[in-house]
Specification:
The chain contains eleven helices and 23 strands. By secondary structure, the chain is an alpha/beta fold. The protein has two domains: 32-209, Ribonuclease Inhibitor (Leucine-rich repeat, LRR (right-handed beta-alpha superhelix), Alpha-Beta Horseshoe); 324-489 and 515-627, Transferase(Phosphotransferase) domain 1 (Transferase(Phosphotransferase), domain 1, Orthogonal Bundle), CATH 1.10.510. Residues 220-247 are annotated as: Disordered.
Length: 631
């Protein structure tokens, strides 16, 4: 291009901009939101589908334009939805003037350039979908200023580069974050809500590493030839050379690395192309010796041809409508980790603007790898038969030699522990006495059913407030039933070293001590080699009940006598402390419930008797709590 032709092009561009400005200035009838949208139209260099033809400066309002939605009362623009229009151009900074905008969807176009930083002015924005474009530059850290962004942030299938900003950890956990298939690099920040994202949020970025991806970040020390513990490449696994051996007593480095996606862990979103072949079959199974009732169980046999492994996906709840393919396409978010494995919140079948079906998928820890299919099938189906309104329902499971998944219903409102004590970034909510009594009665009914529903005399084995899930109506659900048997190789006995403290001073609710399941564990089970029993479940329930009555964490009291909350409350009653010094301070004003609270304390103390023979059965506990309601 000659200097003359370049000068002419610049002149034409300037003249065009001046003509647009003159046109906009003369269009005094068009609303300010309409003028901002015309700036977007001006930034579009190609509109082959004529999506913006109806956008005219002569209109008084843009509310009838293609892709635009307005508030009926204020006539302010609340949504821009122009996906799949083959639009080329860039995002103008004038979009920041649409202060009532709640949804911006420009996916599947050919927009290029960076995201303007001014977009952080859209304080009412809840959904931002710019996926499948040609956008580039670094991920704007300013997006964290979109404080109402809680639905979707989808920047996938673009050309963004650089690292994931650690500030993105401040996004709410419920936000659906999607950064797939960009050119992002570096380690995923292990902070905030980023820890709750599944691998689907980050896959397709070859130079991105760290949890929850299955790619290790390079360790500078490990690459030092003078470091005796450096990691050597694994010749048997050239695609993942970082997983090898460490010269530390012959330990494998892989033994301390949690492989989030392995084998059928594609169920949480990582799909091995051309690796899956589905074969469905229906089989009849005899259920019970009496009546010879027959049921149909849907099985999906999956052959992972790349690994030469086979697995089975079995639906145990006939009301479960999701197929394995739905889970393969789903978005997944880490919501919990424990010795039994990792739990994901999986949102399957989400369409445009749809909520999608939500389930919980627990990936069992690798200690369960010794299970044979028939044994695992019998154990899981026994779990599936334990159904009660206060027990989380098992919906399906997947078995392979190196991967085992449990699919259950997802309870949305968090755990009882969070309801009582709050989360890391949120204060604890106020639970009335009526709500606490209702929760306690529901837990008791569910645990009673576990104990009485089968001649096998089931034991839960890990009752604690974090295992009690609540829905929006504060209806309690016991989770984790059956995991104590499924996860083998983890110690079922505990030998804690509890440090003694000054016995002369009693302090309720001292500063938090690191949580430990040992506080919920009955004394007789803390002895090495002992077994979990139904009476140890009763003890654990008693600790949960004391937790609900006092509002204190179960570790309270360790600073005083080393024995925890149960000993602290028992001592307070022995010394005839005023009730106001024992119960949760938020319940002090509920004077009418004093007799009920005292009765509940007596139930809890009976449950936590040191001698298991003295403790009541859960049926007795359940009846006692139900009588409190009628007092």
């Amino acid at each position: 291009m000659t200097i003359s032709s370049l000068t002419n092009s610049i002149a034409i561009s300037i003249i065009s901009s001046l003509l647009l400005f003159t046109s906009l200035s003369s269009s005094s009838s068009l609303s300010p939101d309409g003028l901002s949208l015309l700036a977007l139209k001006s930034a579009i260099s190609s509109d082959p589908t004529h999506a913006l033809t109806s956008w005219s400066s002569t209109d008084p309002t843009p509310c009838h334009w293609t892709g635009i939605t307005c508030d009926h009362t204020t006539q302010l623009v609340t949504s821009i939805s122009l996906p799949n229009k083959a639009l080329s151009g860039y995002l103008p900074s004038e979009l920041a003037s649409l202060l009532s905008l709640r949804r911006l969807s420009l996916s599947n176009n050919s927009l290029s350039g960076p995201i303007p930083t001014q977009i952080s002015s859209l304080q009412k924005l809840t959904h931002l979908d710019l996926s499948s474009n040609l956008l580039s530059g670094s991920l704007p850290e300013c997006l964290i200023n979109l404080t109402h962004l809680a639905g979707t942030l989808n920047l996938s299938y673009n050309r963004f580069s650089g690292e994931v900003p650690p500030a993105y950890g401040r996004f709410p956990v419920e936000l659906s974050l999607d950064l797939r298939h960009n050119n992002l690099t570096g380690k995923i920040p292990q902070v905030g809500s980023l820890l709750n994202q599944g691998p689907t949020a980050f896959s397709g970025n070859p130079n991105l590493c760290g949890f929850p991806l299955n790619s290790l970040c390079p360790d500078p020390e490990a690459q030092n030839p003078n470091n005796p513990n450096r990691v050597f490449s694994n010749p048997e696994n050239p695609r993942n050379p970082g997983v090898g051996f460490v010269s530390d007593g012959g330990r494998k480095n892989g033994s301390v690395i949690v492989s989030v996606v392995s084998g059928i862990a594609v169920v949480i979103g990582v799909v091995f192309v051309s690796a899956l072949v589905f074969r469905r079959k229906w089989r009849r199974s005899e259920e019970g010796r009496m009546g010879r009732e027959e049921k149909l169980e849907k099985e999906v046999e999956v052959e992972v041809s790349e690994e030469g492994q086979k697995g089975k996906f079995v639906v145990v709840d006939e009301g479960f409508g999701l197929e394995l393919e739905d889970l393969l396409r789903a978005s997944a978010y880490v919501v919990g980790k424990s010795r039994s494995g990792i739990v994901y919140r999986v949102v399957a079948g989400r369409g445009s603007g749809g909520a999608g079906a939500m389930v919980a998928v627990r990936r069992l820890s690798e200690a369960d790898a010794t299970w044979r299919f028939k044994e695992f099938e019998a154990e899981v189906e026994a779990i599936g038969r334990v159904q009660h309104p206060n027990i989380v329902r098992l919906r399906a499971y997947y078995y392979a030699s190196d991967e085992k998944l449990l699919v259950s219903e997802f309870i949305r409102n968090g755990s009882l522990y969070t309801a009582l004590h709050g989360g890391p970034a949120e204060p604890s909510p106020l639970l009335s006495w009526a709500a606490r009594l209702k929760i306690a009665q529901g837990i008791a009914r569910g645990l009673t059913h576990i104990h009485e529903c089968s001649p096998r005399k089931h034991v839960h084995g890990n009752i604690k407030s974090s295992k009690i899930l609540l829905d929006d109506d504060l209806h309690p659900y016991i989770s984790g039933f059956g995991l104590a048997r499924l996860v083998q190789g983890t110690s079922k006995s505990i030998n804690p070293a509890l440090k003694k403290h000054n016995l002369n001073q009693v302090t309720l609710c001292p500063k938090s001590i690191p949580s430990s399941s040992v506080i919920y564990t009955a004394p007789e089970v803390r002895v090495l080699g002992s077994k979990l029993t139904q009476k140890s479940d009763v003890y654990s329930f008693g600790i949960v009940l004391l937790e609900m009555l006092t509002g204190c964490s179960p570790e309270s009291g360790l600073e005083n006598d080393g024995k925890g909350l149960e000993s602290l409350v028992r001592r307070a009653f022995r010394e005839e402390k005023p009730l106001s010094e024992i119960i949760d301070s938020t319940l002090v004003h509920e004077v009418h419930a004093k007799k009920q609270v005292i009765a509940a304390f007596h139930v809890a103390l009976n449950c936590t008797e040191p001698d298991p023979e003295v403790r009541p059965r859960m049926r007795t506990v359940c009846d006692s709590l139900d009588r409190i309601k009628s007092q």
